[in-house]
Amino acid sequence: MPERKFGIDLRSYDDIFKTSEEREEDRLSKIRDIPISEIDDFPDHPFMVRDDEDMQNLIESIKERGVITPAMVRKKEDGRYELISGHRRKRACELAGMDTLRCEVVDMDRDEATIMMVESNFQRSNILPSEKAFAYKMRYEAMKHQGSRRDLTSSPLGTKFRSDEDIARETGDSRNQVHRYMRLTELVPELRDMVDEGRIKMRPAVELSYLDKESQMDVVEQIEWTQGTPTHDQAIRMRKLQDDGNLTPQAVMAVMQEIKPSQKEKFVFSGEKIRQYLPKSLPFESMEDYVCKALAYYQRHLRAKESSR
Q1: Which domains, from first to last, does the chain contain?
Q2: Which candidate, 6, 64, 72, places its Cα nearest to that of 34?
Q3: If pLDDT is split at 50, 70 and 90, which confidence band does 4 have?
Q4: Phi then psi dihedrals of residue 82, to 5 deg
Q5: If you average pLDDT over residues 53-78, what whole number do you get?
Q6: Closest CA to 287 of 300, 271, 273
Q7: Within a 10 A sphere around the Cβ of 273, how many other Cβ atoms?
Q8: End-to-end CA distance of the chain
Q9: What contacts 29, CB < 8 A, 6 or more positions away?
């Protein structure tokens, strides 16, 4: 890795003046076939490797043409290799019965490898909210750590390092959205799965993430019992109850078993059908009250008719 001084890479004189062809030759010299048995997955890798149809297509492609784009690894202190990018390629090679994986060996520390791992996996088309949540958190912590190290030698007049702003700028999500995603890592797995499935939306999920784990499990129990998920308003109220020290299992049940506006019965009348029975001068905002009074009068009429028999 290039020597650093005052937060700046100090490259050798020869490296600065190398041509693009020479740099490509240097990169190719670091590409080799490495036994899969010597490659460890990245610790706490946040992206799932699924044995789905896409994986089967990748297996067939590798059997036919090999690994076109090398995976990226770094050498560990114990002599083994740590996979930075290429977890799907590694799995496909294993399922294809191959013993080695085409890799580029790079010189990176843990923070640099974490940032690169997240960047390379964000090229995927389908990323679950939980995957993005843990990826953002890992990258945030790595960039924050890098900034702390560089602050030791940087000028006190320099701009404060903001890892959340960098992530927002590079991913397209706002700083607030980045922090919302990172809050999902505080959910219990059962609630995180519901977010991934689309059953719980982001805003109520963020509020639920502030509840302690026991209360979160109380929410899970009520979801299973009522087959309904909390609204944003319900999640906010449960968080406030916890802040006030009043969030008991009974309080969670009371909030969760409320009838939501979407669950209330609604009757929709055709204006053309009922308008003929209403006074022409009746304002629109008074129509509902008029109809209710008319129905009450009609109900009394039916009762009187029934009692006279």
Answers
A1: 1-109 (3.90.1530.30), 187-260 (no CATH)
A2: 72
A3: very low
A4: -115, 125
A5: 93
A6: 271
A7: 8
A8: 100
A9: none
Least reliable range by pLDDT among 27-36, 167-176, 238-247: 167-176
State the pLDDT at residue 276.
73
Q: Which two tokens stand for residue 236?
A: 């906010």
Of 113, 65, 125, the C-alpha closest to 89 is 65
Asked if the model's pLDDT at residue 13 lies above 80, the reply is no
Q: Which two tokens stand for residue 49?
A: 């490797």
pLDDT at 17: 56
Q: How far is CA 166 from CA 121, 131, 162, 218, 266, in A?
A: 17, 19, 7, 37, 48
CA atoms within 13 A on the CB side of 8: 6
- Give the up-direction half-sphere exposure of residue 247: CA atoms within 13 A in the CB hemisphere: 25
Q: How far apart are CA 68 and CA 169, in angstroms?
A: 30
If you compute the radius of gyration of the chain from its CA atoms, what whole number of angstroms results?
30
Backbone angles phi, psi at 137, to 5 degrees: -65, -45
Average pLDDT along the chain: 81
Structure confidence by residue, pLDDT tens digits, 84-96: 999 999 999 999 9
Its pTM surpasses 0.70: no
Give the three-class secondary structure for 256: helix
55 neighbors 143 (Cβ within 8 angstroms): no
Q: What pLDDT does 195 receive?
A: 95
The Cβ of residue 200 has, within 10 Å, a number of other Cβ atoms equal to: 23
Residues 167-201 have pLDDT tens digits of 776 666 788 888 999 999 999 999 999 999 999 99
CA distance 42 to 192: 22
Residue-by-residue DSSP string for 66-132:
--SS-EEEEE-TTS-EEEEE-HHHHHHHHHTT-SEEEEEEE---HHHHHHHHHHHHTTSS---HHHH
Other C-beta atoms closer than 10 Å to the C-beta of 102 total 19
